[in-house]
Amino acid sequence: MKKKVLWISIIINIIFLAQLILVSFKYRETLLQKWIKRKHSADIVMFGDSHTANGEWSFLIEGNSVLRMGYGGHSSSQLSSLIPLTIEYKPKYVFILCGGNDIGYKNFSVKEVMSNFKFMADTLKKNNLKPVFQKLLYQHNSLKYNRSIDSINFHLTNYCLKEKIDLIDIGAGMYDSTGLKANLTNDKCHLNKKGYKIWSAIINNFLKDREKEE
């Protein structure tokens, strides 16, 4: 009887441990984000809209503690008011991607988007942080939207060249004649895991290149 109770206890403990491991794995990004916020320190901040919010950056970016500050549905104006929140973590780089949500507004203006980008960059530089802008992403089969993206990216590129701010093209390898490749998105707009692997590989290469230069 004692042996039977012992074995039942062991089996229950094994099941509990297995469930704990599964839950920890499923919510690993959330748990790591809470830990980073608690210690108020991060090597990198990923800052932007839903594209940023949906990435498991702690596991996509190699060898760095990464704080995810993604806000789904936010415009560049809304995000510019949140950029000061990155300062307290004292990251080495703040990767910025936003502006796509602005296109859906009636009063959409590339000039206003650029004004918000400038505010973000100036705020970070004043606090000795390095902004890294990322070119905005196309959608799949959305010609009108993608033309607006081209316009923003054109002005963003010129601005970064003039101000000597790092700019990376995260869309490299993600496009075909339809815009964003169909196999990289589940809803024609947001990236799936394949898309995030391409994006994170570009960031990892950028960081490796910067390490070589230092």
Describe the biggest sheet? Answer: 5 strands, parallel
How big is the Rg?
21 Å
Biggest sheet, strands in spatial order? Answer: 2-1-3-4-5
Report how far the terminal alpha carbons are from each other.
68 Å
Supply the CATH superfamily name.
SGNH hydrolase
Taking pLDDT < 50 over at least 5 consecutive residues as the criterion, the unreliable ranges are 15-26
Count of runs of 4 or more consecutive helical residues: 8
Element-by-element helix/strand order: HHEHHEHEHEHEEEH
Shape, per Cα inertia axes: globular
Q: Return the structural class.
A: alpha/beta
Can you lay out the helices and strands and say which pair or pack?
Elements lengths: L1 H25 L1 H12 L4 E5 L1 H4 L3 H4 L5 E5 L5 H5 L12 E5 L12 H17 L3 E5 L8 H21 L2 E3 L6 E2 L2 E2 L12 H21 L1
Parallel strand pairs: 1-2, 1-3, 3-4, 4-5
Antiparallel strand pairs: 6-7
Helix pairs in contact: 6-7
Q: What would a concise description of this structure say?
A:
With 214 residues, this protein is of the alpha/beta class.
Structure notes:
- By secondary structure, this protein is an alpha/beta fold.
- The protein has a single domain (28-213), classed as SGNH hydrolase (Rossmann fold), CATH 3.40.50.1110.
- 51% of the residues lie in helices and 13% in strands.
- It is built from eight helices and seven strands.
- The strands form two sheets. Strands 2-1-3-4-5 form a five-stranded parallel β-sheet, with helices on both faces. The protein has a two-stranded antiparallel ribbon with strand order 6-7.
- Helix 6 (110-126) runs parallel beside helix 7 (143-163).
- The longest helix is centred in the first third of the chain and has 25 residues, at 2-26.
- The radius of gyration is 21 Å and the shape is globular.
- The N and C termini lie far apart (68 Å).
- The model is unreliable at 15-26 (pLDDT under 50).
